[in-house]
Write a structure and sequence with these properties.
The chain is α+β, with helices and mostly antiparallel strands. It is built from five helices and nine strands. The longest helix is centred in the first third of the chain and has 28 residues. It is globular.
Length: 195
């Protein structure tokens, strides 16, 4: 009986921590009031590689507005849809001066070559970012994004992850967020807001 009580108490504590982390994540990157995200201090210096194998740092997010998305190439729906949406939004806006970045939260599989094979047929506007796993994960943590590798059986896995797109100003600061499945006109207004 005492063992069951301890198990229940530990389970409740873990659930409370997970709930607290989820609330913190939503507050950090998923609020419904866009004015509360503008200027939020997210991101940290990093040195990774792009999908062409060239070094890339946080300096890539400066000098022009940018869109930043975290995902993985084996994603069945969200990531290919988001890459398509980004290409469409930027084409519709004629926003040739906006850069877009796709950071893989599955760097073990998503080498620069795998990212190139995935992105180049879909868009010439989106730059893939990968690198050593811990360096990629440190970069993702600095943006407070959620991701979790989930086994599917027989050695396969998927990655649950944050699905929003960060809209960055020309200094690399968070200006707004675009939610997955958001109305295209709303998404384009948010991008236009940093042009």
């Amino acid at each position: 009986m005492a063992s069951r009580a301890v198990t229940l108490a530990v389970g409740a504590a873990v659930a409370a921590l997970a709930l607290g982390a989820g609330v913190a994540l939503r507050q950090a990157v998923g609020p419904t009031d866009p004015s509360s995200v503008a200027g939020a201090e997210l991101g940290a210096p990093f040195t990774l590689v792009d999908h062409r194998g060239a070094p890339i740092t946080e300096a890539a997010f400066q000098g022009q507005p940018s869109l930043l998305f975290f995902g993985f190439t084996h994603c069945p729906e969200i990531c290919p849809t988001t890459v398509y949406d980004i290409e469409t939004w930027l084409s519709d806006l004629g926003a040739d001066d906006v850069r877009a970045f796709f950071v893989s939260v599955d760097p073990e599989r998503d080498t620069p070559e795998a990212l190139a094979d995935y992105l180049e047929p879909q868009s010439d506007r989106v730059t893939g970012i990968s690198g050593p796993p811990e360096a990629v994960f440190d970069m993702a943590r600095s943006w407070r994004v959620y991701w979790n590798r989930r086994p599917l059986g027989e050695g396969d896995y998927t990655v649950d992850h944050y699905t929003g797109v960060f809209v960055l100003d020309d200094e690399g600061r968070l200006a707004d967020l675009i939610g997955y499945g958001e109305d295209p006109e709303s998404a384009k207004r948010k991008i236009a807001g940093v042009l």
